[in-house]
């Protein structure tokens, strides 16, 4: 089942059940405090918060998303893309828990011949919030799920809130069991790589008040209008339905992976580290294509910096695959061809998109050459002094001023029989992170997932918690 087919089954299913089909919004949201659209619900926040009356009682979409939080997972897990598409169905004070659960079960288990996704009932597990007996009853009654395939989780995992006063409520997630070849028995609680999370149902049911942490807050009462927000990972369903091993091998992504493999002259599946690099390339090239298609250009801050990281990590990964010449023209073209059926603008706008990407690659390749020269000098000076390791401040200078990644410094130093003073390097890095943190605070720049909920802030006195993420953001390249 091709990704496009799953997408249209989704829209047909919910469209024919009274949901207004809403096109994907841009990856770049209107809200300047929000880095990217991270979930299907983002464009609907004004309606979900009640700030603006919803123009329809039900909606459905396939939303383009970017999650920078997942960049480090990419290629290593089977299921995290930087860019991905989230299928969503939404109810604004219309149907609630029973409706959401019934629809989800029906779409998942209806046979392919009858327009469904054709999952076998025995392969599906669900998680619920531990006190949500109502959801458990519905899962048993509507889906006939046995107790053994319903797992209860605490607030940390199965409770949604914006991190501030406003709407909140329990979630219920649906998982697909890939079977014993993929890990330990025991449901999602035991193994999240055998049991793949495919769909999250959020029941916006309560009004929460102040709190002291993600799990400690008061509930003020039931919301007068309860909402449904769900998100299913389109690529996750695609990889499970296509019988491939992970989301980098689906029809929309695999052609880039194959091109990387051909350029490197290395076979996919032959070596674990190489495989991870090919998957990273496949993901990052596609993510960069989609970001540039939505108007992002490489720069040193904010959205442009994320794009720059994706492009540079691609160059770096190709280099580790043994290719140190420009590859973006080949890779980006492969991604365009795989994505243009779903997003024709990546083809019509390709001249503009590709110019930005090629220029960034050229400039980073020059950086790598310049950095290598500086590093070579430092290596021979270090050796002359008879020191076993390269000074931390040299590594830091290369990273900070030349954008030269630390792993590359380590690799080149090692080739010359030298270590790198990591302790000194790390302490310079953490001093820099502190400065960046202070800066971001000053700029009121929020880039965690929680910043998504800024429009909810109008609902009450709010505390902003968007800074924790900066460290992760600046740790690579
Ligand atoms: P995970 O625990 O696997 O990281 P999540 O709980 O963070 O997923 P949700 O926020 O619940 O994900 O998003 C709804 C759905 O979107 C998930 O059930 C999953 O199918 C999909 N999804 C989330 N993150 C990604 C990603 N990085 N790549 C592909 N699909 C994703
Ligand atoms: Mg996640
Ligand atoms: Mg999860
Ligand atoms: Mg989830």
UniProtKB/TrEMBL annotation:
Please verify whether the record's keywords include Ligase: yes
Keywords for the protein's UniProt record, in alphabetical order: Aminoacyl-tRNA synthetase, ATP-binding, Cytoplasm, Ligase, Metal-binding, Nucleotide-binding, Protein biosynthesis, RNA-binding, tRNA-binding, Zinc
Intracellular or extracellular location(s): Cytoplasm
Molecular function per GO: ligase activity
Which residue numbers delimit the Alanyl-transfer RNA synthetases family profile domain? 1-477
Q: Which cofactor does it need?
A: Zn(2+)
Q: What is its main location?
A: cytoplasm
Which reaction does this enzyme catalyse, per its entry? tRNA(Ala) + L-alanine + ATP = L-alanyl-tRNA(Ala) + AMP + diphosphate
What does the record say about how the cofactor binds?
Binds 1 zinc ion per subunit.
**EC number(s) in its UniProt entry?**
6.1.1.7
Domain statement: Consists of three domains; the N-terminal catalytic domain, the editing domain and the C-terminal C-Ala domain. The editing domain removes incorrectly charged amino acids, while the C-Ala domain, along with tRNA(Ala), serves as a bridge to cooperatively bring together the editing and aminoacylation centers thus stimulating deacylation of misacylated tRNAs.
Q: What is stated as this protein's family in its record?
A: Belongs to the class-II aminoacyl-tRNA synthetase family.
What does the protein in this record do? Catalyzes the attachment of alanine to tRNA(Ala) in a two-step reaction: alanine is first activated by ATP to form Ala-AMP and then transferred to the acceptor end of tRNA(Ala). Also edits incorrectly charged Ser-tRNA(Ala) and Gly-tRNA(Ala) via its editing domain.
Q: What is the designated name of this protein?
A: Alanine--tRNA ligase
Span covered, complete protein: 1 to 477 of 888
